[in-house]
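User: I've been trying to design a sequence by hand for this structure and keep getting stuck. Would you show me what you'd pick, starting by listing the structure so we're on the same page?

Assistant: Good idea, let's start from the same input. This is the structure you sent:
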């Protein structure tokens, strides 16, 4: 079992930045894929960024060029650095683990709220 805890969310003004963290425990996740998802009010949860065990990254078009995903295997932690935030980034952000690196996310965190004020 893997437990995931997100942190770093909060209220930020448009144009600001935040860094989210996803700390894993229970098992080393360095050989697993990991991803960030978000769910805005009234919308479905969507993957916005992911990173493989080898460091290959994916970004949704909506965040490409503004968000950076990275991981620190020594800390068993994944991060999402977010720049140039706007109101459309307001959502609950979740991290998740894909043990088989096949796009199936098995373990999920509880989510952290990000609110961008205009």
């Amino acid at each position: 079992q893997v437990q995931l805890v997100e942190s770093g969310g909060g209220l930020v003004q448009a144009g600001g930045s935040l860094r989210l963290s996803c700390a894993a425990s229970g098992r080393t996740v360095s050989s697993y894929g990991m991803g960030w998802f978000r769910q805005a009010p009234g919308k479905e949860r969507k993957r916005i960024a992911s990173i493989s065990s080898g460091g290959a990254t994916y970004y949704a078009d909506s965040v490409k060029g503004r968000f950076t995903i990275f991981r620190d295997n020594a800390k068993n932690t994944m991060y999402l650095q977010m720049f140039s935030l706007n109101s459309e980034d307001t959502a609950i952000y979740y991290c998740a683990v894909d043990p088989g690196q096949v796009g199936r996310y098995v373990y999920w965190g509880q989510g952290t709220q990000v609110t961008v004020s205009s």
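That's my pick for every position. To get oriented when you compare it with your attempt: The chain has a mean pLDDT of 97. DSSP finds no helices and eleven strands in the chain.
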